[in-house]
Amino acid sequence: FDYPCLYFPQVTNAQEQFQLTDEQKAELKEAFALYAKTTTGRIPVRDLGELLRCLGWNPSEQDLEEARHELELTASGSLSLTEVEDYIRRRGALYYGNSAEEDLMAAFQVLDNHGSGRIAVSSFRRFLTTMGEKMTHDEAEELIASSTLSGQDYIECRDLVQAVKDLPK
């Protein structure tokens, strides 16, 4: 199962910068727009971790602190799309190579705004059909149906992981 996500190859030479494809740039812009304040076109620094997780990275709190320091935050505590894109070019995919289950858990955490282990079906459906490698409506509905009990308007993380494990290879 490949959930919608960007993957960036690891950049090994510190002087080398990873070049994003047009598709990766478009997906970054789309993900960035989910967090951007409409009036400023910037994201609050507190959303940097969620944005990076949405792109397939799994940064620790220490990684995020280093990123904030590296990005030399503006006085307003916000980041522009250009600043985030430049950061991604410099850092490459430091978190490339996670297992499918780790990737799924990271994606789930992006949508689990309250840390409850649950996400709204509507948010999950939108994520599956609009971000990264987009699923068709039918594919998304099949995964949702296998992850929820009849009538539930939320998905539990453990149920989603089990449903993905049960998918035919």
UniProtKB/TrEMBL annotation:
Listed GO MF terms: calcium ion binding
Coiled-coil intervals, chain numbering: none
Keyword Repeat appears in the UniProt entry: yes
Keywords: Repeat
InterPro entries reported in the protein's UniProt record: CALM/Myosin/TropC-like, EF-hand-dom_pair, EF_hand_dom
Keyword Repeat: yes
Record's GO cellular component terms: myosin II complex
Residue ranges constituting the EF-hand domain according to the UniProt record: 23-58, 99-134
Family annotation (PANTHER family): CALMODULIN LIKE 3, MYOSIN LIGHT CHAIN 1, 3
The protein's name: EF-hand domain-containing protein
Organism, as annotated: Candidula unifasciata
Lineage: Eukaryota, Metazoa, Spiralia, Lophotrochozoa, Mollusca
